[in-house]
Amino acid sequence: MSGIFNFCAGPAMLPAEVMTKAQQEFINWQDTGCSVMELSHRSKEFVALASQAEADLRHLLNIPENYKVLFCHGGGRGQFSAVPLNLLKPRQSADYIVSGSWSKAAAKEAAQYGEINILDITREGENNKSVLPPQEWTLNKYAAYIHYCPNETVDGIEIFDLPKSHGVPIVADMSSTILSHEIDVTRYGLIYAGAQKNIGPSGLTLVIVREDLLGHAAKGTPAIMNYQLLAENGSMYNTPPTYAWYLAGLVFQWLRELGGVAEIARRNQEKAQLLYQYIDNSGFYYNNVVTGQRSLMNVPFWLTDESLNALFLTEAEKHGLLALKGHRMVGGMRASIYNAMPLAGVKALVAFMDKFASEHSK
Ligand code: PLP
């Protein structure tokens, strides 16, 4: 809806153009007389749509031939289990880098399936939070894989570099950062992402996996989590989340048309810079992450006078600025400014924050 900006961390807003197209096609997709959600996943129409979506994603991220793209169920948390089940071989361990709440949750889940080493890289200063940079991580050369989360959605911390992994496959939970800036896929063994932030609606999870990592699933791995089986069946071993796949395809097309990942990265920098700069200069609000590690997608911030929190949220809603309440674990506020958030949304937020600050400064 015009004039309404949704800052939810996920499920998050989708691009306005995508929503309009989906609405137009909702009950009659390409003159089939059906909605995409009513088509068989094995119909030639859906198979064509699904492979186009994969081709567009491959183009956007420059995914090499020797990587499979899987369209899965189960969300980010599903992958917290699927990754160790598929990659952690008997008598091997995996390194789990803990940089915040989501990587901690991933490590906890993985520990159910095998031996993991936790490397807690979080550092709490008196007034700020940071993480040890990848060059300082002490990694095990013999690990089955290294798992990390480049963007901690709750904590607002982003890790922009990659560690030197000495050939150990790097597994990245990119749920809240995928497609926000360019990456070199060849540096990763596996990338996964729940769709509900930068890809499409919840219910779909993307896995991009190097082929040599397939075929090692532990005995007892549920079939729908077995990467090899999913790859052999074109992600259609069981019925995939077809409508979510279709919407993801529209998002990929939208991204390609606007200039690809390089262009969205430029826009994301501009939005984040505007918001952080305003917060830092305001004296009324603050962010506690050291510069250089601040998330470009999730911007937590606090009011110096926390007794104004409830009023801030009510007033923000009246101005069409939705879902700014911070995560329950950290409190305060959080503005998630994913790919679909236009610059106009961040400008509207900054203008509101400024007005609120001038009305309530003592
Ligand atoms: N990983 C990250 C970085 C997330 O931000 C989230 C959810 O917000 C998850 C994992 C969990 O995703 P899901 O709810 O799809 O299981």
From TrEMBL:
Enzyme class (EC, first level): transferase
Residues with the N6-(pyridoxal phosphate)lysine modification: K197
GO MF, any single term: O-phospho-L-serine:2-oxoglutarate aminotransferase activity
Cofactor section: pyridoxal 5'-phosphate
Pfam families xref list: Aminotran_5
Keyword Nucleotide-binding: no
Compartment annotation: Cytoplasm
One GO biological process term: L-serine biosynthetic process
Sequence positions that bind L-glutamate: R42
Domain Aminotransferase class V: 4-349
Binding site for pyridoxal 5'-phosphate: G76, R77, W102, T153, D173, Q196, N238, T239
Keywords recorded for this protein, A-Z: Amino-acid biosynthesis, Aminotransferase, Cytoplasm, Pyridoxal phosphate, Pyridoxine biosynthesis, Serine biosynthesis, Transferase
GO CC term (a single one): cytoplasm
EC number: 2.6.1.52
Catalytic activity: 4-(phosphooxy)-L-threonine + 2-oxoglutarate = (R)-3-hydroxy-2-oxo-4-phosphooxybutanoate + L-glutamate; O-phospho-L-serine + 2-oxoglutarate = 3-phosphooxypyruvate + L-glutamate
NCBIfam families: PRK05355.1 (NF003764), serC_1 (TIGR01364)
Quaternary structure note: Homodimer.
Function summary: Catalyzes the reversible conversion of 3-phosphohydroxypyruvate to phosphoserine and of 3-hydroxy-2-oxo-4-phosphonooxybutanoate to phosphohydroxythreonine.
The protein, known as: Phosphoserine aminotransferase
